[in-house]
Amino acid sequence: MLMSDQSATLKKISLRLMPYLLVLYVVAYLDRINISFAALQMNKELGFSDEMFGLGAGIFFVGYFLFGLPSNLVIERLGARRWIALIMILWGLISVAMIFVKTALVFYALRFLLGVAEAGFFPGMILYLTYWYPREHHGFAVARFMTAIPLAGVLGGLLCAQILPLKLFEISGWQWLFIFTGSPAVILGLSVLFFLPDGPADASWLNESEKEWLALRIQPRKAPSTFVLDKAIFSKVVWHLALIYFCLTLGMYGFQLWLPQIIQSFGRLNLTQVGFLSAIPAVFQALGMILIALSSDRTGERKKHVAAACFLAALSLVASGLTNDANWALLGLSLTAFGIWGVVGPFWALPVHCLPGAALPGSIALINSLGNLGGFAGPYLIGVIKQQKPDFIWSLSALAVSLTLAGLLTLSLKTDYLSMNKQK
């Protein structure tokens, strides 16, 4: 196939799949972070302390951890279309059920179940993209897919600004927020059954030559079940990457799930103002993800891009906590968002570049599941620290330490063992 034909094939794939996958992930991520906006009103109404909120926000990732690996293995057997549809419908119903929260125990239980339901979506989508994009294009494909994160942040902020002040039919604004953000997952889950192909071989919009070219360029993903897990569990590089991702997600979700409350601490801001201001760092998230991924893909370099983004985010976090000027603090938070989410493209390109294709399902799921325990640690850590020291500088500094460690660990990832084939 000529180079122009290859580019046309990839463009066709992107136009057909990426907008739809982007919408799915916007809904998924919004249902994960809607609690950060609901907390502006919910915590006071239900009497939740900072520590209680931090635990409830973070316990999502305990369920996510426990079911991430099994979910990613199921997608290989059941197929992307049916599995993604099932889990989207399930998590949408759980998200809407948050309107019934009255006690901390119910809050914890529903957040845990939401994590269980969402566990298979992100690693499944990372794996799904490897079915369609050759290695050299995978980093930017992931980054484009993950621009859903800032879009969800912007959408969440705008919805917060409009919905939280409402109180209709004796239903509070924070409850309406869960209804408006959870319902689309159920509807889109049903649509997946009719729209999403399991892979290139099932895509009626690809011709035979395009399918053959993809089959040659995409490394085989199937393997005996003993290889899928054994090689991942006993690989040093997989555990090294999981530790890096743990430090990243500790900072990422500690920041994300407390962001509206951090902004609220700037001064006397109403819910509408907090919602709109929360959307500004989300714009920087998108810029970081696209610009850093483009640079990483253009140069083929991953480690230094990940490390530099981590260090930028860490410095910006500390700077935003030290200043008393709201404008400078918001700039610091925006640069933090630029750095933290700028990491994701080059980071998720690392496993694809350094692990054999047959090991990817288990390895991606293991890295994602273990790493996302940081999503529990980050929000809860902020809650515990803030309970003792209300000034956010202390908790933001803790997140900065974790991001700095992530950068150092990435730089220590030696190129001579960036291959599972070299692991004994």
Structure summarized in a few sentences:
By secondary structure, this protein is an all-alpha fold. Helices cover 79% and strands 1% of the residues.
Secondary-structure blueprint:
Layout (H helix, E strand, L loop, with lengths): L2 H44 L3 H29 L1 H18 L6 H15 L2 H10 L4 H12 L1 H16 L3 E2 L2 E2 H23 L12 H10 L7 H9 L2 H21 L2 H6 L6 H29 L3 H20 L3 H17 L1 H11 L5 H12 L2 H15 L3 H20 L13
Antiparallel strand pairs: 1-2
Helix pairs in contact: 1-2, 1-6, 1-7, 1-8, 2-3, 2-4, 2-5, 2-17, 2-18, 3-4, 3-5, 3-8, 5-17, 6-13, 6-16, 7-13, 10-17, 11-17, 11-18, 11-19, 13-15, 14-15, 14-19, 18-19
Q: What report would you give on this structure?
A:
The chain is an all-alpha fold. The protein has a single domain, classed as Growth Hormone, Chain: A (Up-down Bundle). Helices cover 79% and strands 1% of the residues. Strand 1 and strand 2 form a beta hairpin. Mean pLDDT is 84; it is low at 221-227 and 415-424.
Quantity of strands, as a count: 2
Structural class per helix/strand content? mainly alpha
Shape: globular
Series of H and E elements: HHHHHHHEEHHHHHHHHHHHH
CATH topology: Growth Hormone, Chain: A
Report the major sheet.
2 strands, antiparallel
Percentage beta strand:
under 5%
Oligomer: single chain
Note the total helix count: 19
Return the CATH architecture. Up-down Bundle
Strand order of the largest sheet: 1-2
Mean pLDDT: 84
Radius of gyration: 21 Å
CATH class: Mainly Alpha
Helical amount: over 70%
Distance between the termini: 38 Å
Low-confidence stretches: 221-227, 415-424
By CATH, the superfamily comes out as MFS general substrate transporter like domains
Domain tally: 1
